[in-house]
Amino acid sequence: MLDLLRFPRVALCHRPTPLEPMHRLTEYLGGPNFWIKRDDCTGLATGGNKTRKLEFLMGEALSANADIVVTQGAVQSNHVRQTAAAAARCGLDCHGLLERRVPGAASFYETTGNVFLDRMFGATLEFRESGLDMNAEAGAAAEKLRAAGRRPYVIPGGGSNETGALGYALCARELAVQAEENGIRIDWIVLGTGSTGTQAGLVAGLCAMNANIPVMGISVRQKRDAQVKAVHALAEKTAAKIGAAGVPLSKVLVDDGYVGEGYGVPADSTLDAIMLAARMEGVLLDPVYSGKGFAGMLGLTRSGFFDAGCNVVFLHTGGSAALFAYEDILSGAMTAQNQAHSWKAS
Ligand SMILES: *Cc1c(COP(=O)(O)O)cnc(C)c1O
Predict the structure, then answer these.
(1) With contact defined as beta carbons under 8 Å apart, do 322 and 76 qualify?
(2) CA 215, 31, 24, 41: dihedral to nearest 10 degrees?
(3) How far is CA 4 from CA 9, 84, 208, 263, in A?
(4) Is the pTM of this model over 0.85?
(5) Ligand 1 pocket, residue 217 CB under 6 Å
(6) Is the pLDDT of residue 1 over 60?
(7) In angstroms, what is the span from residue 27 Cα to ligand 1's centroid?
(8) Is ligand 1 within 6 A of the CB of residue 79?
(9) What whole-number distance in Å separates Cα of residue 303 and Cα of residue 301?
(10) Is the CB of 78 under 6 A from ligand 1?
């Protein structure tokens, strides 16, 4: 069924991550039943979804006898932060290329949050202006390192290839076991989707297990059709890698209604979601990914998308390290929320 033991892998993840009920949110919205899969607690460098991908990617890097990993992302990339930590843990160097993808960012955007942690883990960094082919940039950086006698292993943006996606095929199995332990049927999984590896791996894993659980990806960046196409392409490659049958296109669901102005720019709905999760469940979301994903789940709920009484699992993909890079925007949102709401139990 799902034999992933034959792929090289490094143990980096605290697993299983908890599957917890969100009682207060469920009551506040009047159902359905909300659950949260705590992949913000994967344990590597403040956690997040890249840990599961990096188990397989670093496994491959070590098998290839690499001495440095090269990767790329946006300036406040969680992926680069977690890769830097994984490399430190494996005794490899890490070189990260950071794209200035977010316009109008605060002055401290390039020094705080994830960038601060990248440096903490000893990564070397280069910045790039937006709009370049960043995977090509990373390839060129690796070539330079090779010419200088190093043995680079290149990890694509977000760790999203069929190797990284194996981590989420494995997570699909973990969720199926937890559903059984909790005596529940999971009716929906909702998550923020960006570089696609998380959704693609989940969908491939679920298909391989013949588990008929729909996964709704809330796009953080691009239009629905482009995201569906990208997720589906990687889900197919991942399914092929694990020896499963193809993934029907109809299994890839994306909602692009919560992107706002674009990648890395929180919409009002993002800020509302972050405040709601913090004050109602004590959960930290982030302004780039999980805040948009959670906003999508709230929006779908309010529009009556989910049947009453069904079980909706929010896959919390992490990202809280980026909160500090958005302190100015979030402080403003907090002031507004303080004036508008009280979510204390009555
Ligand atoms: C990378 C990331 C995502 C998106 O996952 P993809 O596999 O790139 O689609 C979601 N949430 C957080 C916090 C991330 O860092």
Answers:
(1) yes
(2) -10
(3) 9, 25, 12, 33
(4) yes
(5) no
(6) no
(7) 28
(8) yes
(9) 5
(10) yes
Positions annotated as catalytic residues are 77
Q: Which atom of ligand 1 is nearest to the CA of 289?
A: 11
pLDDT tens readout for residues 58-97: 999 999 999 999 999 999 999 999 999 999 999 999 999 9
- The residue with tokens 């569906």 is 228
Tokens of 149: 């006698």
Regarding the beta carbon of 46 and ligand 1, being less than 6 Å apart is answered no
Atom 15, ligand 1: residue with shortest CA distance = 78
The ligand 1 atom at the shortest distance from the C-alpha of residue 78 is: 15
Q: Which residues contact 159 (CB under 8 A, 6 or more apart)?
A: 50, 53, 54, 57, 71, 79, 83, 167, 195, 197
Average pLDDT, the chain: 96
The 10s digit of each residue's pLDDT in 139-191 is 999 999 999 999 999 999 999 999 999 999 999 999 999 999 999 999 999 99
- The tokens for 329 are 């925007």
